[in-house]
Amino acid sequence: MSPGSMRVTEVEEFLRNPPDGFAVEVLRSGCRVYSDPEKSLVLIDDFDSCRGRIVFQKSLGRKVKMHNLWEYNSIRKSLLSRRIYLLMSAWEGNFSMIGKKKVKVLKRFVVSLDGNNPFIKWQMERGLDWTISSVAGESYRVDIDLTEALESWAEKNIRKVKPVWRDYSFTLKYYSDALFDFSHHFGLSKRTFHLRLT
């Protein structure tokens, strides 16, 4: 996989020096981030930082909802042709203890994937084809998990501690208008596939 297929940038660095196709407007209450939807697919929810509230304009959010085949095909095309931007957090501590004791947030990162990279594109196509058997007749939820890719990156770039990743996936939700969608109601339509760097 080419070095540029996945980029991991600290949030503060991303806001100071946004990549091509992005612009940051500094506000009293935080920042507003603009992007070109023809070149990038932003899947980042609004969040709070030391700068205040960070809002990514034109972001679809981490959980992408689709209600018809046109929306599904549009999202699929974007995933397989554009650079995808996500927000992820690295924590120091035992993930099972989160909520029971204070766990230190190491850093927040903007992670970008090149959906047009042949290896990522192949994984994405295979994963979507495997998890979605018939979008016309059933509802489904698919989680695309980047844990392995992030751990591979962290081994080379975060030396002192082994981070625990949170927000390491994004979700596609398709809502069918079928009256009796049994697999969805019984939780059988929830699937996960993993994206890897190698």
Protein model, in words:
With 198 residues, the protein is an alpha/beta fold. It has one domain (3-194). It has helices at residues 11-16, 69-79, 118-131, 147-157, 182-185; strands spanning 6-10, 22-27, 30-35, 40-42, 47-49, 52-56, 63-66, 83-92, 104-114, 140-145, 164-166, 169-174, 190-194. The strands form three sheets. Strands 1, 4, 8, 9 and 11 form a five-stranded mixed beta sheet that branches. The chain has a four-stranded mixed beta sheet with strand order 2-3-6-5, with no helix packed on it. The protein has a four-stranded mixed beta sheet with strand order 7-12-10-13. A hairpin with a 2-residue loop joins strand 5 and strand 6. It is globular, with a radius of gyration of 18 Å.
